[in-house]
Description:
- By secondary structure, the chain is α/β, with parallel strands linked by helices.
- It has 3 domains: 7-76; 90-212, 3-Layer(aba) Sandwich (Trna Endonuclease, Chain: A, domain 1), CATH 3.40.1350.10; 222-279, DNA polymerase, domain 1.
- Helices cover 48% and strands 18% of the residues.
- It has helices at residues 20-29, 34-46, 54-68, 70-76, 78-83, 90-102, 149-167, 188-197, 212-218, 232-240, 246-249, 254-260, 265-279; strands at residues 7-9, 15-17, 52-53, 106-114, 119-128, 131-138, 146-147, 175-182, 185-186, 200-202.
- It has a 5-stranded mixed sheet, sandwiched between helices. A 3-stranded mixed sheet has the order 2-1-3. A two-stranded parallel sheet has the order 7-9.
- Helix 2 (34-46) crosses helix 3, helix 7 packs parallel to helix 8 and helix 12 packs across helix 13.
- The radius of gyration is 21 Å and the shape is globular.
- The mean pLDDT is 93.
Amino acid sequence: MEKTEKYITKEDGKQELFDEEKIKKSFLNAGADVTTAASTTDSIKNNLRNYMLTKDIYGQAIKQLGKKQPSVALKYTLKKAIMDLGPTGYVFEKYMAKILKEYGFKTEVSRLVTGFCVDHEVDVIAEKDGEHYMIECKYHNDSDTGSDIKTALYVHSRFQDIKKGCEANLNCYNLKEGWLATNTKVTSEVIKYANCVKLRILAWHYPKQENLEYFIENKKLYPVSILQGLNNQQKIILFDQDTITIQDFLEYTPDSIARTIHTNPVFAHRLFEQAEMLLS
Length: 280
């Protein structure tokens, strides 16, 4: 019998062929064992309708993984959890600073820095071994939206003005490198330009080694928004308390978190069970 190809519909309305190897790989990357990844992929493929919405496929995947490997189901929601750090980019900046701190950097967030020509508000200044890094964070609410060449040009030109200001002793930073950090993707043109001018890119799936997922997964620095059941208001309360990562969350007790986010102790205990499972 001839194989019938089916299409899926992405968030932005674009349609593409369903790629079962791609979705299976995403399950494996989240920590699923080979059997779970294969059976979950088969289940989705068997229930797939032509032009099915990716959000509906995602919902099926979470349901299936939750039955077989609950901790994997949580990790599989990582990309969405980072999207839930919005709607503005400030929480993502604080999240990036916390991640870098766990890798030995000292960080400053939203720092006004004097450039040679003008002043700049830099999202994150990171310092390690006496060298500083200017990090511009580009947060997107839509996973299909990426950073384009205009963003890369903007980041690099700011870096150059600040670096020139450093050399003229207008500020006290020993700038080594500029970074563009984003929670989604970058275009091939951005990658080409960044490689040419030595602008570091930290994005979803880029580079192949030491990308955003690597920095998170390697030290289990999951955002608190990954916890299932939290509503938007509860997330905002936690963000306002500078509770951004699961490690921050576990500094509370179930009773104190119940009071903080205005919920009942039973639900608070379930949240703690999720958090501890992610770090186990």
